[in-house]
Specification:
Number of helices: 8
Oligomer: single chain
Strand content: under 5%
Distance between the termini: 100 Å
Low-confidence stretches: 1-28
């Protein structure tokens, strides 16, 4: 039994004008699927958008939710059979809004560039930590050692000027400075800040 080359023979696999094979999930333009989505949008699009806008408070998100809701109806038209269409659309839209809200809650809050601008850079952070350590080490010194270091090193005064301000002899300023520097070095080493 041989196959016929007659183009009108329905058993001919090479039939040029044979019936079009529809791929699953793909429909030609202007079909019932397209009419369904248009009808759904015309009948329910406005009220659905208003409902979702009240839920989200964001027009852009509301449009996205309405579009996703109608897309789900288009993908699964059989679920609309035998049930109130608007109620189904509103339920799907509400569920989408709730899912989006939960997804945003589960993610960490996003920050803007403004928040990053106020954070100190690594160098500044290290300097701040070091400054706190030095201040803590200075605070651990005896008051007379701290006073002499503040006058001679931090305020840049000479031994004579420091002696006049502190009301002690210049020799005492020198000896206190010596012992204060030794004590400060030890305090900095204890804090891991001395070289």
């Amino acid at each position: 039994m041989s196959r016929s080359n007659d183009p009108s023979d329905p058993s001919n696999p090479h039939e040029p004008d044979g019936p079009a094979v529809r791929e699953e999930g793909v429909s030609p333009a202007g079909t019932a699927d397209e009419e369904l989505i248009r009808a759904l949008f015309e009948d329910h699009g406005g009220p659905l958008y208003g409902y979702v806008l009240r839920l989200t408070g964001d027009p852009g998100r509301a449009e996205d939710v309405v579009q996703e809701t109608l897309l789900r109806a288009w993908r699964h038209p059989s679920v609309l059979e035998g049930r109130p269409v608007r109620a189904w659309l509103f339920t799907v839209a509400r569920n989408l809004v709730v899912d989006q809200h939960r997804a945003r809650k589960s993610r960490p809050k996003e920050t803007s560039d403004e928040a990053l601008a106020v954070l100190p850079a690594d160098d500044e952070l290290e300097k701040a930590v070091e400054s706190w350590g030095i201040a803590d080490a200075l605070a651990s010194l005896r008051p007379e050692h701290r006073e002499v270091l503040m006058e001679t090193y931090y305020r840049g005064r000479s031994v004579k000027e420091a002696s006049e301000i502190l009301g002690i002899p210049p020799g005492t300023v020198k000896s206190r400075t010596y012992y204060a520097l030794r004590a400060l070095k030890l305090a900095l080493e204890e804090r891991g800040l001395a070289p």
